[in-house]
Amino acid sequence: MKGIKYSITQLLDHQSFPHKHLFFMAGNLPTAKDVWNVAEDTLQSMSSYLDLNEFDSYLNIAPHDTLERLKRIKRLGIKQVQYNLEIANKELFEDTCPGKMKYDLFVGKLIEAVSVFGFGNVRSNFVFGLQDKEQMLEEIKRLADKGIVADYSIFQPKNNTPFQHRPSPDFEDVLDFSNQLVDIYLKYHFKPIFCSLSSRSSIINELYEDRCSTDFSK
Questions:
Q1: Helices 32-46, 2-14: inter-axial angle, 10-degree rounding
Q2: pTM for the structure as a whole
């Protein structure tokens, strides 16, 4: 905790930023309760010397064990939570991610989180390239109706994994998917995670901001 405090206060005291994102990513522990215990303790500690409400703040973590957890971290100043499904298809998800909870239960947790954080403040990341594009978009639209925002990363094959021989999606598919995702964001008044100034910026930020500036200029 002391190391976190020193690092972030040094950064804020000696750098200026046009605006600030604060992204918390929790790792794996034996149970989701253990993960949440560490996350909540860390956020509680940080809130003693930082006003978390001043940041665009996100908590990327395993689905909550209780709704009270979500309510407490929201009171601490966290604005959005993210539970990563990775795959937008029930059968493929349960075959590919056997260590995670069942798909319907996972989606139910995302919907519960919307009841606490509000429409558009709950996110889930997907890996583009692991399933059919149109199938993926249909499920993303279904989740968007519930207030859940889809983010994505692009599949890259890695040696000595079950998908080491699977090709990455080509650029045209990535661009088409990204443009369709922007359509969904605009329809539901969602925003991409972070921004084009962030070190975690992505094609979706740039496309979204370009589309918004074009719309405003009309």
A1: 50
A2: 0.91
